[in-house]
Amino acid sequence: MAKGARENIKMKSTESDECYWTVKNKRNTTERIELRKYDKKLRKHVTFKEAK
Protein backbone atom coordinates (compact mmCIF):
# COMPACT_ATOMS: atom_id res chain seq x y z
CA MET A 1 0.00 0.00 0.00
CA ALA A 2 1.36 3.40 -0.95
CA LYS A 3 2.05 5.92 1.79
CA GLY A 4 0.83 9.42 0.96
CA ALA A 5 1.89 12.89 2.05
CA ARG A 6 -1.45 13.64 3.74
CA GLU A 7 -1.55 13.66 7.52
CA ASN A 8 -4.30 14.17 10.12
CA ILE A 9 -3.80 17.30 12.21
CA LYS A 10 -5.61 18.76 15.20
CA MET A 11 -6.94 22.31 14.96
CA LYS A 12 -7.40 24.25 18.22
CA SER A 13 -9.46 27.40 18.73
CA THR A 14 -7.64 30.58 19.78
CA GLU A 15 -10.52 31.75 21.98
CA SER A 16 -11.91 28.57 23.61
CA ASP A 17 -10.97 24.93 24.14
CA GLU A 18 -12.89 23.77 21.04
CA CYS A 19 -10.93 21.61 18.57
CA TYR A 20 -11.46 19.46 15.49
CA TRP A 21 -9.45 17.23 13.14
CA THR A 22 -8.60 17.92 9.50
CA VAL A 23 -6.16 16.67 6.86
CA LYS A 24 -3.31 18.54 5.19
CA ASN A 25 -0.61 17.71 2.67
CA LYS A 26 2.78 17.91 4.42
CA ARG A 27 4.75 18.20 1.16
CA ASN A 28 2.90 21.24 -0.18
CA THR A 29 2.15 23.00 3.13
CA THR A 30 5.13 22.74 5.46
CA GLU A 31 4.20 25.61 7.80
CA ARG A 32 1.39 25.51 10.37
CA ILE A 33 -2.02 26.44 9.03
CA GLU A 34 -4.65 28.84 10.38
CA LEU A 35 -8.30 28.55 9.39
CA ARG A 36 -11.28 30.71 10.27
CA LYS A 37 -14.04 28.29 11.32
CA TYR A 38 -17.25 28.29 13.35
CA ASP A 39 -16.84 27.67 17.10
CA LYS A 40 -19.91 25.85 18.47
CA LYS A 41 -19.29 26.87 22.07
CA LEU A 42 -18.92 30.60 21.35
CA ARG A 43 -21.42 30.48 18.44
CA LYS A 44 -19.26 32.67 16.19
CA HIS A 45 -16.39 32.37 13.71
CA VAL A 46 -12.89 32.37 15.25
CA THR A 47 -9.37 31.48 14.13
CA PHE A 48 -8.26 27.88 14.57
CA LYS A 49 -4.52 27.10 14.58
CA GLU A 50 -2.70 23.84 14.04
CA ALA A 51 -1.80 22.19 17.35
CA LYS A 52 0.82 19.54 18.03
Give the tags.
52 residues, 0% helix, 56% strand, four-stranded antiparallel sheet, elongated, mainly beta
Instruction: Give me the count of strands.
Output: 4
Poorly predicted runs: none
How would a textbook summarize the main sheet? Answer: 4 strands, antiparallel
CA radius of gyration is 13 Å
Percent of residues in beta strands: over 45%
Return the string of H and E elements: EEEE
| Silhouette | elongated
Q: Give the % helix.
A: under 10%
Backbone structural class? mainly beta
Helix count, DSSP H or I runs of 4 or more residues:
0
Return the average pLDDT rounded to an integer.
93
Largest sheet, spatial ordering of strands: 2-1-4-3
Distance between the termini: 27 Å
Concise synopsis of the structure shown:
By secondary structure, the protein is an all-beta fold.
Could you characterize what this model shows?
This protein has 52 residues and is an all-beta fold. 0% of the residues lie in helices and 56% in strands. The chain contains no helices and four strands. The protein has a four-stranded antiparallel beta sheet with strand order 2-1-4-3, with no helix packed on it. It is elongated, with a radius of gyration of 13 Å. The chain starts with 5 loop residues before the first strand and ends with a strand.
Task: Summarize the topology.
Elements: E1 6-13, E2 19-25, E3 34-39, E4 44-51
Antiparallel strand pairs: 1-2, 1-4, 3-4
